[in-house]
């Protein structure tokens, strides 16, 4: 597997596992406008990350998986916005984390698109 694809698959697999192992932080950033419980969305997004990681890891499904990763990175952006809004009065360190995640989505999408090529 190419290093770029392996690193992206590893990132997604690690984050996917964290959704199940430590779900509470993810629950807290699920937008309230989504129907159902935040935990359900945490588990669904974790499962999606694991599935996309597996697709990227296999050469036959790498392109589809990487394009799905780009879509997933865009789809979770509202959660990052919610975190930034919720943490706007938090400590400077927490604000830096929350606001730093917002522009991070762009290079993640570009990385996934590069792996898809």
UniProtKB/TrEMBL annotation:
- List the transmembrane segments: 64-81
Q: Has the keyword Membrane been applied to this entry?
A: yes
Which top-rank group of organisms is this from?
Answer: Bacteria
Question: Which terms are listed as keywords in the entry?
Answer: Membrane, Transmembrane, Transmembrane helix
Which PANTHER family does the record match to this protein?
A: DOXX FAMILY MEMBRANE PROTEIN, MEMBRANE PROTEIN-RELATED
Q: What is this protein called?
A: DoxX family protein
Please name the source species.
Answer: Paractinoplanes bogorensis
């Amino acid at each position: 597997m190419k290093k770029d694809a392996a690193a992206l698959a590893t990132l997604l697999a690690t984050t996917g596992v964290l959704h199940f192992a430590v779900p509470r932080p993810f629950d807290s950033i699920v937008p309230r406008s989504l129907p159902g419980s935040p935990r359900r969305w945490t588990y669904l997004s974790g499962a999606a990350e694991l599935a996309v990681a597996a697709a990227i890891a296999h050469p036959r499904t790498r392109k589809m998986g990487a394009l799905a990763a780009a879509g997933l990175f865009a789809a979770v952006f509202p959660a990052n916005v919610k975190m930034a809004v919720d943490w706007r009065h938090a400590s400077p360190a927490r604000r830096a984390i929350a606001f730093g995640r917002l522009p991070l989505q762009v290079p993640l999408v570009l990385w996934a698109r590069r792996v898809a090529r």
